[in-house]
Write a structure and sequence with these properties.
Elements: H1 2-27, H2 32-52, H3 65-82, H4 88-109, H5 116-133, H6 143-163, H7 169-185, H8 197-233, H9 236-249, H10 255-272
Helix pairs in contact: 1-8, 1-9, 2-3, 2-7, 2-8, 3-6, 3-7, 4-5, 4-6, 4-8, 4-9, 5-10, 6-8, 7-8, 8-10
């Protein structure tokens, strides 16, 4: 039960990231690159402060660190750039579909045993997710934005795979964020910087709380989940994000929405079973 509750809390933080990014870029009018940089800086600041307040030393130069930094940057910037043009549903479908593919391929490469129930759960969850996020008349996707979100999904999938071996979740997350800052700052060369106060607050909240603290918790949970279950658990994030958007916008889901949501959660439950 404790593991379930912590995973649920982490998925809620991931869903909040989608809402905060969409609100900052679309509603508050922030520049996408600038929003991503502020998110990165605030996450690095929060995590850096936390590791300074503890006695344990951070291992800055582990063999996998370069891949962790690169995959984090790919996710952060791909995510923000894509949400300039993609609507919430289509963006979440592309992102977590690519996360799913990346992590299951990683599980196969790493020779993790994936039982039949997990494959079945993946199929059921993806069916419900496609039904939930793909309207009957179809969604018009910008190929460029969809490509950026797909790259973000690959980045997050790789980042999660690396986290499965984390022995110091907080230290590893802090190191990834801090070492990513110099590379992330380069993006400001191309940024059309304009950041209102509401956008700045949203970016800082996304970086310090739902990204920095959320990702540290995710790294702590990954060794207990394995690549297969971790991938499927994240399929619940688009559902949570859309529910959050509906509540914030007072757009209540209809019966079809609730039914599709139930199918996604059934798939997650099947895939989470052991054996």
């Amino acid at each position: 039960m404790r593991l379930f509750l912590l995973v649920a809390l982490t998925m809620a933080a991931f869903a909040a990231n989608s809402l905060l990014n969409r609100a900052g870029i679309v509603q508050a009018g922030a520049d996408a690159l600038g929003f991503a940089v502020v998110r990165l800086l605030s996450g690095a600041g929060m995590l850096g402060l936390l590791v300074l307040l503890r006695p344990r030393t951070v291992q800055w130069l582990q063999p996998s660190r370069a891949f962790g930094v690169a995959s984090l940057l790919l996710y952060l910037f791909g995510f923000s750039l894509a949400y300039q043009a993609l609507d919430a549903g289509a963006g979440a479908l592309v992102l977590f579909g690519m996360v799913q593919v990346t992590m299951f391929l990683g599980a196969l490469v790493l020779r993790e045993v994936i039982p039949v129930t997990r494959w079945l759960g993946v199929g059921v969850a993806m069916t419900g997710l496609c039904w939930l996020l793909w309207p009957g008349e179809g969604a018009q996707l910008s190929s460029g934005a969809a490509g950026m979100m797909a790259l973000a999904g690959v980045g997050w999938g790789v980042y999660s795979l690396i986290g499965r071996g984390a022995k110091d979740p907080l230290g590893d997350t802090a190191a990834n964020f801090v070492l990513a800052v110099p590379f992330g700052m380069v993006a400001l060369i191309w940024a059309d910087w304009h950041m209102s106060t509401p956008a700045l607050v949203l970016a800082i909240t996304s970086g310090a709380v739902t990204s920095g603290l959320g990702y540290a918790l995710w790294y702590a949970l990954l060794p207990q989940l394995g690549a297969g279950r971790a991938a499927v658990a994240q399929l619940s994030v688009p559902v949570l994000a859309i529910l959050g958007g509906a509540l914030l916008l007072a757009e209540w889901p209809d019966f079809e929405f609730l039914l599709a949501t139930g199918i996604v959660l059934l798939g997650v439950a099947l895939a989470a079973k052991r054996g």
